[in-house]
TrEMBL record:
<keyword id="KW-0963">Cytoplasm</keyword>
<keyword id="KW-0690">Ribosome biogenesis</keyword>
<comment type="function">
    <text>Required for maturation of 30S ribosomal subunits.</text>
</comment>
<dbReference type="GO" id="GO:0006412">
    <property type="term" value="P:translation"/>
</dbReference>
<feature type="domain" description="Ribosome maturation factor RimP C-terminal">
    <location>
        <begin position="83"/>
        <end position="147"/>
    </location>
</feature>
<dbReference type="InterPro" id="IPR028998">
    <property type="entry name" value="RimP_C"/>
</dbReference>
<dbReference type="InterPro" id="IPR003728">
    <property type="entry name" value="Ribosome_maturation_RimP"/>
</dbReference>
<dbReference type="GO" id="GO:0005829">
    <property type="term" value="C:cytosol"/>
</dbReference>
<dbReference type="Pfam" id="PF17384">
    <property type="entry name" value="DUF150_C"/>
</dbReference>
<dbReference type="InterPro" id="IPR036847">
    <property type="entry name" value="RimP_C_sf"/>
</dbReference>
<dbReference type="GO" id="GO:0000028">
    <property type="term" value="P:ribosomal small subunit assembly"/>
</dbReference>
<comment type="similarity">
    <text>Belongs to the RimP family.</text>
</comment>
<protein>
    <recommendedName>
        <fullName>Ribosome maturation factor RimP</fullName>
    </recommendedName>
</protein>
């Protein structure tokens, strides 16, 4: 992740002002800032022109804000979209996802299944293995992503 939540908030508010949603912002060991964006309006496509616009914007903004980086890479989430906020789990209820936990539960640190429910406190996953519903508080979740589902893209529809 970035060094400070201030940097994260600067990027988030800046991108929101452009009409996009920040999904991830991480700096790698070489100092490259990797930013993943999506449209602020569900279902709106995000393309390379959008990524270029955000990259140029951040290239001017971040040095003025004192954020250190060697390069910026902006991309779309792709089919295995990260789920980083409670509202993402609500939006993609019924979709297949993988949740990685901060600490193992019953010897497992990763669960895959269908998002059955979510609220402001937790997400419920209809897990494939072990079979059954598993509830996870957001504090337990280290990372979560949608699993690729070719049927979502066959019709040209991407929620």
């Amino acid at each position: 992740m970035l060094q400070s939540t201030d940097s994260q908030q600067t990027i988030d508010s800046s991108i929101t002002g452009l009409g996009y949603e920040l999904l991830e912002a991480k700096r790698d060991g070489r100092g490259v800032l990797h930013v993943v964006i999506d449209a602020a309006v569900a279902g709106e496509p995000v393309g390379s022109a959008d990524c270029d616009r955000v990259c140029k914007h951040l290239g001017y903004l971040l040095p003025a804000e004192g954020v250190d980086f060697s390069a910026i890479e902006v991309s779309t989430p792709g089919p295995e979209r990260p789920l980083t906020k409670p509202e993402h789990f609500t939006r993609f209820r019924g979709a297949r996802a993988t949740i990685r936990l901060r600490a193992a539960r019953d010897g497992r640190s990763s669960y895959t299944g269908t998002i059955a429910a979510s609220d402001g406190d937790q997400v419920v996953l209809a897990a494939e293995e072990p079979a059954g519903e598993q509830a996870f508080s957001y504090a337990e979740i280290q990372a979560a992503r949608l699993c690729f589902d070719p049927t979502r893209y066959a019709s040209g529809r991407n929620r």
